[in-house]
Write a structure and sequence with these properties.
With about 200 residues, the protein is an alpha/beta fold. It has eight helices and six strands.
Length: about 200
Amino acid sequence: MLCDLKSPIQKFNFAVIDVETTGLSLSADRIIEIAVVYIDRGNKIDTDPYSELLNPGIPIPRNITDITGITTGQTRKARQFKQIADELKRSLEHRILVAHNSSFDLGFLNAEFKRCRRKPLSNAVLCTLKMSRHFFPDLENHKLGTLADFFGIKIKKQHRALGDALATAEIFIKLLYLAEKKDITRLSQIMEIAG
């Protein structure tokens, strides 16, 4: 996706992504849940987010179930990533992607796209973790839960894709507001901080 880097950030539409996975290995692990929260024109959260459990084709380890509450049984009849790949890609077209620790979420998404012989996402990507580190270098840590507490945002279901994506979207909007107060208003400037 080509973007005019000199344009004001409010001109763009965003897709805030969160995935839950069977583990941390891009080669061995799979996505078990994905959520996308859409933000239009920089600050309006769409009231119809996308959220879906996915069948990873492998058992979900006990430690992942302990964290997420997602079991192998819950995903057994769910669609596989290859069944949602094309519709997901279409929903992300012409949007800047946002995630907390974006290298994790986008790494897994692109690994899944590669497995089903699709091109990787080429969208511009912004990371709220990097933005947080830039604006709040003295914060104890920059975990999603810590940032949510800092901003007074309640995560409805932490370690579930939709709950985390909704919280990330709210945090992102607050970080954009803070950037604007510091006269960081163009995509190029945000990319320097969070790209």
